[in-house]
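idk why but the lab printer keeps eating my pages so im just putting this in chat instead. protein + guanosine-5'-monophosphate:
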Amino acid sequence: MKHESLFQDIINKKTPENIIYQDTIVTAFKDINPKAPVHILIVPNIFISSLNEINEKNKDILAHMFSIAIKIAKQKKISKEGYKIIVNCNKNGGQEINYLHMHLLGGKKLNSLY
Ligand code: 5GP
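predcted complex ->
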């Protein structure tokens, strides 16, 4: 699994990634290896390793991640045709980067997994 610092560097603008949205809670940027015409990652600004670390105290972050993903889907004009939101968790879930992230995918007909 890749180290969390990869996404931390993007959030802190240490790497020249194309950030498409940022507020005090989350950052959204294009996936480097897109699986669809629109493939955006939404990550919390504070480090959370995976869904397993969501608890009563930090659970509102997930709602915010969803709300920003939905907002971006509307901006990208993929809402009407539809889109997919995926969060992979750990090895069996296919999580490659040890930093909680949400995939927003759309712009084409997606199969059941992507
Ligand atoms: P996972 O499989 O962990 O749910 O998804 C990790 C995603 O991060 C993959 O879709 C992969 O293409 C993307 N990714 C890996 N390294 C980088 C990077 O350096 N920059 C960006 N923008 N995306 C990355």
